[in-house]
What we know:
Blueprint: H1 2-35, E1 39-42, E2 46-48, E3 62-64, E4 68-75, E5 78-83, E6 88-92, E7 96-97, H2 99-113, E8 120-123, E9 127-130, E10 139-143, E11 148-158, H3 177-188, H4 205-209, H5 213-223, E12 245-252, E13 258-262, E14 266-268, H6 272-275, E15 282-294, E16 298-308, E17 316-325, E18 330-348, E19 358-365, E20 371-378, E21 383-390, H7 410-416, H8 419-434
Antiparallel strand pairs: 1-4, 1-7, 2-3, 4-5, 5-6, 8-11, 8-14, 9-10, 11-12, 12-13, 15-16, 16-17, 17-18, 18-19, 19-20, 20-21
Amino acid sequence: MAAHICTTQSRARASVVVFFLVCCVFGSCNTASQDALPQAYIAPASVNLRPQLNQKGGNGTTVRFGEQVSILDVRRRYVKIRAKSGVEGWLDSLDLLSPAEMNRIKQEREQALRLPSEGKATAYETLNIHLDPNRKSPAFAQIAEGTPVSILGRKATPKVTEAVRPSFTFERAKPSARKQRKERAAKTGLRAPPMPSPPKPPDNWAHSWGSNADEAEALEQSTAPPKPAGQTAGKPAIPAKPVILEDWNLIRTKNDQIGWVLSRNLMMSIPDDVAQYAGGKHITSFFDLGTVNDERDGPKHNWLWTTASGGQPFDFDSWRVFLWNRHRHRYETSYRQHDLEGHFPVRVDPPDSNGLGHTFHLITRDDDGKFRSRAYLFDGTLVHLTGTEDYNRNGPKQAAGAQNFDANSPQSKHAQEGWLKRNWASWKQMLSRKR
């Protein structure tokens, strides 16, 4: 009896050990299968998951931008996902980003956070922030009407683009061995020979048709080689429609959100008495070049701005410096250049402690195709070119050795002097002659 009890206990212990091992094996397999599921990220600001993939399926849990999810199943363009909270549901595949796409967005955001601001702007109305300069790109956030943002860049893209495709790929299960054998047999099986080409008409076909010219012409047209698409007999080919470009701005919010918005929905925060001189062009950037104290109108500012005509692959085609005339109490143009190809960034150096003026740098592409950065000095009245150097857009600047600015040279000191100091000697000589 005692031996029977020991045998029963040993069997029970063995069964417990086997059950524990089975649980561990299946548990590890289940964990491995969960870890092997494809991963993706939510692209829009928020998406409502559908519990069932049908028209009657109601809205379920909401997932938000940047949340990591696991892909469970794919049916055409719809994907079943599982959130980290364990909730499952269906959504459109266009609302997902691949891990590579998400890493690219993070890297671009880190780079954009270091970009200098090209000016402030406000939104006319509630505006969507897109991941890319494209209307069909997911909008991951919004800015309210009147919210200030910083302008970081500009880009012109086609208004009508191709259909957006999912940025991730989901590997479906491989077909069964039986299906593979059928496909292999279909590929290696006997095929019917191709249909022979129709015979050509005889050389004397025109004489055989006699005086029936209409039928002869119809036969000639049927045997003639096909004409290119879009071209008819006696008519030129239809020209392709022009590509319409839209201007987009890369912006940064006060919460460090980086994205693209339509430029036409932004209003640059430059005073109206300066913005009125835009002449229908879009102000792409603006900078403060110092304060002027007017006894009647109070403090005013000198301004540098860049403008673009719209639909151009570069950032600006003209730039202008405005100064405030204290005697006439209005803005006047100190310097202006147009019909050029300008690129961001536009850089304005901090004001000199000696009060010699403001220095700013502009990058343009010249007629020889090279990029050059030019330094200008605004002394409060006039603008002077002080230096030119080649610019490498993919790396640091490389000095060209042409017109390098030397602050200690007599010409540079003369350029840095104010307008009154430069002309005082001639005025003094003229007054002495009159006496």
